[in-house]
Amino acid sequence: MLKGLGIGFEIIKISADESFPEDLNREKITEYISRNKAEAIENLNENEILITADTLVWLENSVLGKPKDHNDAFSMIRNMSGKTHEVFTSVTLKSKEKSITFSEITEVTFDEFSDEEIEFYIRNFKPFDKAGAYGIQDWLGYVKISKINGCYYNVMGLPLRKLYSELLNF
Length: 170
Description:
By secondary structure, this protein is α+β, with helices and mostly antiparallel strands. The chain has helices spanning 27-39, 70-80, 115-125, 139-144, 152-156, 160-169, and strands spanning 50-59, 62-64, 84-94, 99-110, 145-149. Helix 2 packs across helix 3 (115-125).
């Protein structure tokens, strides 16, 4: 996605704790984790900007993070069937001098799923590395999203329009 913005970048693997205090809700969770990831990297060069992000799905006052296994993925998708959920992505920009964190919220409404459709999706697309156990950019997104309110790319994990705007101001 960053290539699409025309931004040169290097991927750095960050080992950061993704747990969060239980009293946090919604985008406060992703903001906390995104900042925590950014804090794991020190000693940036003068002309470097670090971009970290975190995404979660929020359904009925509960967090749907990355599924632990097949059963967890099935349960998450089943619970979202026929409902609207919110996707929160928070991004932290950090340089040698400063740091900012911002968030984007997108509402996604799913059609109803059959158990067979959920099994097909999990078996063929293995969504174990995705918040809410789905990727908007693959089969489930193609055939089961009836409405989206907000940034499509936010659901993929990086709100590109807002990121571009924030980078210009940063």
